[in-house]
Amino acid sequence: MPEAQMVGSSLEVRRPLLEVRHLVKRFPVGGLFGKKQLHAVTDVSFTLDRGEVVALVGESGSGKSTTARLIVRLYEPTSGEIIFDGKDILKTEPRKASLSFRGRVQMIFQDPFGSLSPNHSIGFQLERPIRIHKRARGEAAVRAKVYELLETAGLNPPEEMARKYPFELSGGQRQRVAIARALAVEPEIILADEPVSMLDVSIRMGVLNLMHRLKEERGIGFLYITHDLASARYLADRTLVMYAGHVVEAGESVDLMDNPQHPYTQLLLSAVPNPRAGLRTREVQARGEIPSLINPPPGCPFAPRCPRVMPQCRHTMPEVAQVGPDHWLRCHLFPPG
Amino acid sequence: MDKRQGIRDTKPKNGRLRVLEQRFPWLFVIVRHRQARVGLAIISVLILMALFAPVIAPGDPTEYHGVTNTPPSKEHILGTDPLGRDEFRLMVWGARVTLLVGFGTAALAMVIATVVGVVAGYFRGIVDDILMLITNLFLIIPGLVLLIVLSAYLHPGTGTVILALAFTGWAFHARIIRAMTLSLREKDFVAAAVVAGESSFSIIFRQILPNMVNLIVGGFIGTTIYGIGASTALAFLGLTKMTEISWGTNLFYAQNGNALLLGAWWAFVPSGFCVALAALALTWINFGMDEITNPRLRAERELRKALGRKFMQRVRATPVRFRER
Amino acid sequence: MDDRSTPLIDIRNLYVEYLTNRGPVRAVENVSFAVKSGEVFGLAGESACGKSTIAHAILRVLRPPAVITGGRILYKGVDVLGLERTSPEEYRNKVLGGVTRKGIGSSAELIERYRWAEVSMVFQSAMNSLNPVVKIVHQITDVLMRHLDIDRAEARRRAEELMEIVNIDKRRLEAYPHQLSGGMRQRIVIAIALALRPSLMIMDEPTTALDVVVQKDILQQIDQLKREYGFSILFITHDLSLMVEFSDRIAIMYAGEIVELAPANEILNNPLHPYTKGLLASFPSITGERVKMSGIPGAPPNLLNPPAGCRFRERCAEWTGVDIPRSPQLQEVIPDHFAACECKYGRADHA
Amino acid sequence: GEGTTTTSGPTTSATPTSAPVTTGSTETSSTVPAQSDIILNVTPAGQSATTFTYNFNPFTTTYLFPTLAGIYEPLMINNRVAGELVPWLATEYKWSDDLLTLTFTLRDGVKWSDGTDFTSADVVYTFDLLKSNPDVAGNGKVAVAEGGFVSSVTAPDPKTVEFHFSKVYTPGFYDIIAQYIVPKHVWENIADPAKDLNLKPVGTGPFTEVVVMQDQVYEVDRNPYYWMPGQPYVKGLRMPAYSGNEAVATMLVNGDVDWSGQFIANIQKAVLDNNPNVHAWWPATSVQFFAVNGTIKPFDDPVVRKAIGLCFDRNKIIQLANQGTSDPADITGLAPAGYKGWKVEDVSSLGVEDWCTYDPAKANAMLDAAGYAKGSDGVRTNKDGTPWKFELPMVNGFTDWLAIAPTLKEELEAIGFQINIVNYDPQQWFGKLFVGDFQMTMFFGLDADTPFGYYRNIMSSQTFKPVGTPTGFGQNFWRVVVPEIEPLLEKFAGTSDSAVQHEVAIEMQKVFAQNAPVIPLFTAGTFYVYSDAKVSGWANAENPFVRPMPIGQNATSEQLIQMTSWKPKE
Amino acid sequence: MRFLLRRLQFYIVAFIAALVTVFYLPRLLPGDPATAILAPMGSRLTQAQIDALRKALGLGEEPLWKQFASFVSHLFRGDLGVSYSQFPTPVTDVIATSLKWTLLLGLTSLLLSVVIGHLVGIMGAWRRGGLFDTIVPPVSNFIGAFPAFFLALGVLYFLGLKLHWFPISHAADHSIPPGFTLAYIGSVLRHLAMPMLVSVLVNLQIWIMTMRNSMVVVLAEDYITMAEAKGLTQRRIMFNYAARNAILPSVTGFGIFLGSILGGQVLIEQVFSYPGLGFQLVRAVGARDYPLMGGLFLAITTGILLVNFLLDILYTYIDPRVRRQ
Ligand SMILES: Nc1ncnc2c1ncn2[C@@H]1O[C@H](COP(=O)(O)OP(=O)(O)OP(=O)(O)O)[C@@H](O)[C@H]1O
Ligand SMILES: Nc1ncnc2c1ncn2[C@@H]1O[C@H](COP(=O)(O)OP(=O)(O)OP(=O)(O)O)[C@@H](O)[C@H]1O
Ligand SMILES: [Mg+2]
Ligand SMILES: [Mg+2]
């Protein structure tokens, strides 16, 4: 099964903690009788282990957030498998995830202004997961744990921070609170959905560095979702490129960005502003809009915009092909085998 | 070029107060918004009047004083009505039932509206479809008309009036609350709570409801206005409990006794003005509430406060007022 | 400041405040810069540092509770902040030159004439700056007919031309905004901004909401047009990489003030102000070695109560410990390269 | 036309009347006055509406004014304020010796408004219609319907009608004369008399020509063939729509109404003072009373009922209810203006102790003596210990009652009751009342032609129905049966001798006074307001020749007398 | 189109709900309507007569569902049964006489208040805090706070009885035969003046506030800033850009408020003896005239459903965004 391999690191023997296989999500859209479906995520597979950062990049609407929300069971997948710690949680825990799963997999959201409840103090918001998951018992213990979390997230002094309300904090501080909240349950994996895209540029690095530290020091695995390729390259061990719900290319981050193989990845990288290269020197090769995700035509989703499109691109989805050590892609230019 | 008009700056507020304000903005609106402030003062006076009726206007309001339609005098500061009752007592005691009906209606209607709105918005799907169908039905069916029809089936009384008014008055707010719930439900902090393992119950009560307090308070005030107005109208049509003293029944008996033709303005004016004052006061408070949901409303007021009304010109352009440095 | 050519627009000591119920937010403090004809002038800085405020002030379309509390904005020598009191003759002589536009009535109307005909703007939220219930064509023709002496048919013809320029099928003129994709709407707004061939076009983060691919595409198109028509651009973004790629000269803003002003390459290769350095250290590169970057610790000050003196001091890695009582002034540290850092480069003796 | 003499008016040979009565312009002129073009605006009682639905069918219950007593006429009129029987379509009546045949002689020269002659066939036809159609309504229905007392109606000649009784029952006379007679030649062609709207009525009455029918106004003009020479004086009656009594009050002030039948609160100051042309006369024709449910203890005890009678301060109650425009009622329960000649002049002559004057102390003493002990809370108990806690229903819309409710409660509580006032909607209240599902209530004046009908309704076992079975409207729903009344009723119905009947009536009053089956409160006026701006000849307190209130539905015939009495303005 | 079809579905369901309500409500209640209705008809009614009337009133012995089926089938033949209180006039005839007047008063006053209210709202929002804005909306709030009948009585007393400017009751002069004559139309208009004035005064504030708030929200939109930056004239921005968008919420509100306006009209009809459905309804309720009540309720509800559907169509026309949904 080549797809399964696409993401797994070939070097590893033991099973990774989280393995996503052939994840599909279709949203019903339209009126009462409409049978239209929005193909938000199609056949996404990857693995994520403790102490690993995997970046999920792709432009707006490519299905990144949906993927993350599927994993934490905010949405029910249309099909596919989510194997966590050896168990397919979709089978063992239908409908809603158990507390124990929630205690091991957490999520950070894009919008630091929206992900904290405006009506509760920071302290309260950190206490809740601790109490729900019984990570500490007794008032004093809980409070101590809250302060410890705040300090870990670089929010000092913790006593004062705990008393504040979200509106009193800056964006960077809020995002740190969100991270602290995710840490409160002592998870093994954190899905970070564009955690810095809403932050001021000068503050972003601080949050990224915090995530890096957590990975290093606590061995937490991160799924880092972003549309900023440079930051993915900065933080992530491996990177997956998504386009219109599909993972089109995956590989070791630096390798992938230095040697992009898929035409879409190439296009994306060429569009990233590069002060040294200057605007006028490079022409963007592809034009046109992202295809509609509602009842999309068969074939490669990038075919309409692809500068190197071939006839078969328009009716068959390419198979996964390996083009380097730990570098995989889906493109007819690279037939499998 | 040099226009050194003064800019009156607002004093910055201390920290604790700001926290309070962020959490309960609707409390602060009243302090800040002139109309809301006046409104609150008026409604407070009316509520106090209702509460302390036995102190303010001692005696049985239904007492017959042997003289009907006397103009205001020393014994009867607001005169007597066509039934020989003391107008002042009627006005003071009338506040009780009218305000009770108003607030009672609002409380009941908002409970229904909140439950329906939150349940529909939170659980969505078929529950939402059914609840919204019902809500829209109630929204479209004319309230007072339904009320009149309902009054034919119900025993006249304060409780039934409240019930009927709440029954016809909840739908509008249910829809607003549902819309708000739908949007809050999509908020990341709700998703974060789900991921943290909170139960639906806890999410509704801890995350969603606290964020709708403004809406609920605003709806409460709006429904109170409706309750007061509609119960007065029902009384005027003789469809409420007519042996009770309320502003509506006072007006009914005034009209019934032809007070208008007698030129007995004192039989109409006190209760009529009380109804209007209550409605106006609540409307004003709601204007203040509007500013919370719509902060843009506040912006211009601040500018006006600082620059005076003259900043407005024929062509709208950012005002230029130099500040001395 | 500049003696080689008279600037197209010259902003001097501009102050803008938002009068909120918590006190005035001093969003722009003592900002001066000039944009020359044909140049792309970049205004960079992180969120909320006052970039858009300056842009809106130039057109005087700031919303209440904004007040301009000081400075001058000289457009071709006429003060935009005093247009209400400028005589139509002076305006005609200085601004219009030989160009004929629709007749100018009173002084009160000058601001309307100045807007768009002289300076147009692509708003930060270009997606939302189209009226959702009016067809595209009418949103283009209304500005043409307002400012030019042309009839409906002619206006329509020009609208079609504009659509061609921004590369959209002219049949789309009959569409409503919601029927178009984000990129298309952006292009329509650019087309409207070009409609009157203004001398200055302000572009306030024109592409942040777009995908990188589309963003690149649009910027290239603008660049093309600029070279064709020769207008100046005031380009605003928080993305330094993009800014350097696109602009001739760049001003870096921090907390309502300009902290550095220099040609694009200078900023990239020889940043003088610690903040600029920090900013550059916040953009990881897409190429080369993976190096650990620091960003800038802390957060920008609250403009409600900005600290006296240097506003960057709290976050500054190079702060010498010297307290400066008032805001540092921009000074020409090396030719054409200004920086406002008095604790490193000493006190300037002129403002 | 040219008039002749005063004797052309109707006269009577009926026994109760002492002297011939004439109507119309009898006293002053010897010639028939010229008819005028004047149109009077009338707001009849019970016809409030803002739009009219037209119906002039006298066999329905929803016809418009003046279908009865205006378009259609009865055989004779029982003019109760004058205590006279006024011959109308019939000039004479006669009982057979066995009291089983009642013969009427019809008036000569009466024509239907289409010019056809009025004959005895029309009378027979009318009663046959009532008999054969179960769903047509009419005053004479009780006589001929199933279970009635008239077995057949015959017409020996065109001017004579005979009613053959199945049993001796002289009060039935009043049911017969009250029936409005319709033309046979018109109605025999109408398919469903119960549902026809009769929009082009043909009648013998003074006003028959419906000339205007708009949403908010209609006009009925005079009958060109009216039998009374020179009558009516006015050309027509115009009925504007009105939404209620208050609307009529403003219309009266504005001069928009000439004849009205509405209660106007504070009429003196509200209307009369504001418009000098408008006058009012509210003759007391019935009595409002307070009823208690005789099937509930302690209300089965006449002592308790009398004590209640003593506890009410009637003068205060009258002030509240109608600003003193009526009088306290007495222990006969009869209204002076409704039963002239029947009612005893001096109540004390009955020899019964008065229980209709305010005296709470006496009431308490009576109750104490009767063994109804007062508890510590001031509430009395029955002998079995159940406390006197009762519900007093108040009815929305009956504003005069609502106005006195607090007073009633207070006064009843002063003698040891505990009263809970409960509001009802009229229909709810009606629904409870007639099946006996109530404890105490107010009730409005009952009308009857004679004390016979009145007392029969009040306390006879003939009108009694067990709790749960509805009684007739206003018939002994309080369910107090006084056996002493039965022989008196029988005696009254068994004679045609007026003198005997008058004697019996006094006995009946005595029985009422002794038993207090209901507690009379105050007399109820006939609400009559008129404007002399256009015509004169109105009945009023100075010249009380008739009870002149315009009524639409359930009209009484007396208004015909007023309609034929107008004359030029003085 | 899909949007409209969806709405249509709703209206059909709503109509069916109204039908079921109208049919079942009176029949579900304890007690027999016939007894209550026939009770006041006098002691002279015999049992046979009552039975016959019962039959005539359609209070048969058939099972309910059969009655319902025949009710519906009659309805589609335009037969709503016979009014009890105005027996034997068919309900449809009763409704027909009042309907035109209700429409006349309702529509003219609605139109007037909507037009004036929107203009005032637009102007007030455009110059928020200006002299106009500080005076007109608050005054309209103050007036609108009074109960409708209170204003009606005041207007009746001063303009009608004291000043004699307008006739005090009815919809037209009785002496003028109805028809398309100048005299008749003039008289209709003179009679319309006071009821319409009151209706406008009562409703004006709703539209002023709806429009004003909506304008304030719209004025904060980016496309307004853009329009200003484009140097367009103030008029054009005000009407083409701001008002055109701001009116959208009013259009939906319009349908909802329609019901309350009809309700308020009841009181006005009562005071001015103006012919209309509202007064008929109150009277039908008083008389327990179930068929008439039902018919009126159905007529009013259907009317409102219809108007709402028309508004939906209008909405898709003025807001291109919903067309696609
Ligand atoms: N609840 C939902 N119902 C219907 N469609 C949805 C839903 N959530 C997401 N989508 C659609 O699914 C597609 C993928 O959305 P998703 O949010 O996963 O994209 P993304 O890659 O995270 O984009 P962005 O960078 O903008 O966050 C989009 O077209 C979106 O409109
Ligand atoms: N209406 C307002 N009321 C109060 N303060 C405001 C208002 N609008 C803007 N500000 C403040 O003015 C400052 C400058 O805002 P401005 O929008 O000019 O920033 P910006 O540099 O354009 O930011 P961004 O990159 O986010 O667009 C900010 O601190 C902001 O909080
Ligand atoms: Mg996303
Ligand atoms: Mg900006």
CATH superfamily of chain C: P-loop containing nucleotide triphosphate hydrolases
Specify the biggest β-sheet of chain D: 7 strands, mixed
Mean pLDDT of chain C: 86
Task: Please bin the fraction of helical residues of chain D.
Answer: 10-25%
**General form of chain D:** globular
Oligomer: heteropentamer
Elements of chain C, N to C (H/E): EEEHEEHHEHHHEHEHEEHHEEH
Q: What layout of secondary structure does this protein have?
A:
The complex is a heteropentamer of chains A (about 325), B (about 325), C (about 350), D (about 575) and E (about 325).
Chain A: H1 2-7, E1 18-29, E2 36-48, E3 53-57, H2 64-71, E4 79-84, E5 87-88, H3 89-92, H4 99-102, E6 105-108, H5 122-132, H6 139-152, H7 158-163, H8 171-184, E7 189-193, H9 201-218, E8 221-226, H10 229-235, E9 238-243, E10 246-252, H11 253-258, H12 263-271, E11 320-324, E12 327-330
Parallel strand pairs in A: 3-8, 3-9, 6-7, 7-8
Antiparallel strand pairs in A: 1-2, 1-4, 4-5, 9-10, 10-12, 11-12
Chain B: H1 15-23, H2 25-32, H3 34-51, H4 53-56, H5 87-123, H6 125-140, H7 143-151, H8 158-169, H9 171-185, H10 188-196, H11 200-208, H12 213-236, H13 247-256, H14 259-262, H15 265-293, H16 296-307
Chain C: E1 9-20, E2 23-35, E3 40-44, H1 51-59, E4 66-75, E5 78-79, H2 88-96, H3 110-114, E6 119-122, H4 136-147, H5 152-165, H6 182-194, E7 200-204, H7 212-229, E8 232-237, H8 240-246, E9 249-254, E10 257-263, H9 264-269, H10 274-280, E11 331-334, E12 337-339, H11 342-345
Parallel strand pairs in C: 3-8, 3-9, 6-7, 7-8
Antiparallel strand pairs in C: 1-2, 1-4, 4-5, 9-10, 10-12, 11-12
Helix pairs in contact in C: 4-5, 5-6
Bound molecules: adenosine-5'-triphosphate (2 copies) and magnesium ion (2 copies).
Question: What is the compact description of this entry?
Answer:
Chain C has helices spanning 51-59, 88-96, 110-114, 136-147, 152-165, 182-194, 212-229, 240-246, 264-269, 274-280, 342-345; strands at residues 9-20, 23-35, 40-44, 66-75, 78-79, 119-122, 200-204, 232-237, 249-254, 257-263, 331-334, 337-339. Chain C is an alpha/beta fold and 351 residues long. In chain C, the strands form 2 sheets. Chain C has an 8-stranded mixed sheet, sandwiched between helices. A 4-stranded antiparallel sheet of chain C has the order 2-1-4-5.
